[in-house]
Amino acid sequence: MTKKALITGITGQDGSYLTELLLEKGYEVYGVQRRASMPNTQRIDHVSHPNLYMMYGDLSDSSNLTRILYVVKPDEIYNLAAQSHVRISFDKPEYTVNVNALGPLRILETIRTLGLKTKYYQASSSEMFGKVLAVPQNEITQFNPQSPYGLSKVFAFYITKIFREGYGIFASNGILFNHESPRRGFNFVTRKITLGLSNIKLGIQPKLMLGNLDAKRDWGHSKDYVEAMWKILQHDKPDDFVIATGETHTVREFVEGAAKHLDIEIAWTGSGLDEKGIDKITGKTIIEIDPKHFRPNEVDLLLGDAAKAREVLGWQPRVTFSKLTQMMIEEDFNYVSREAKLKNVHSEDRRFHIS
Fold it and tell me: Distance between CA atoms of 121 and 291, rounded to whole angstroms?
């Protein structure tokens, strides 16, 4: 019998890759998307499959969730929907908590009241560790969130455990560290870097404004991480798993790695808010620091220990940090080039071949 999977947040980066994976495995996939005045399905518009069904829903509407789960009766639920931007969570804390914390509670309570025999995956986050109390971080490391986003994810993590232990629901948490791809949202620092550098290379913008260059993150590829989500729900019992590469790199290293693939070498001068990145070939300042991009509470270091996932699930990341930056900068350089041509601003003397 064909398995049915329900994905909230299907229009996001992870949702699109997970959709592709599950369809390849023969699932019927039911995607829940928020109703919006503008189209927001660009990440999955390329997926044309008879086993993909889209429906409107919202994690803030429990009656709507109840209707969807009653109709679909999924074998697996992947809750990926969230207000997923840490910086924005400081500006919209109430909305963040309503969606990220109470949303999972509404789904789990619906599973319980309807008596559904379904497996539930909760997208937890490395931001729950916040100002870390141990390095690296694993499944038993104490949480210390430093943002409304991180705190909302801590609630979701524990409510998942409570429903698992209290009601016997197959409910698991995947504590995913930073994972990127060419499908990452434009307002995340990695896409801001790859888009900004591409624009600079093409002469479309003069410089890129960034925040904390020394923040260290454990960066992987989304496609590897959605495979881990699937493996978590195929495990014989519900459990919690850290998913990470086990390597840490600074934002500065991400900038340098992406720039290298555009044949840009950056020299850094100054310090603190006065630090600048200078293109060694042109001598122009192309990176500057803007305090508005700093968080009220900074998280300086996140480094995951995925030993449990490797040993229990047989999972490991495939895409290296260097390959990730290359994939993202190549995709965005091509994207910016196409957009520039459409706007008639891409001149012949700015042509560039990515190495």
Answer: 37
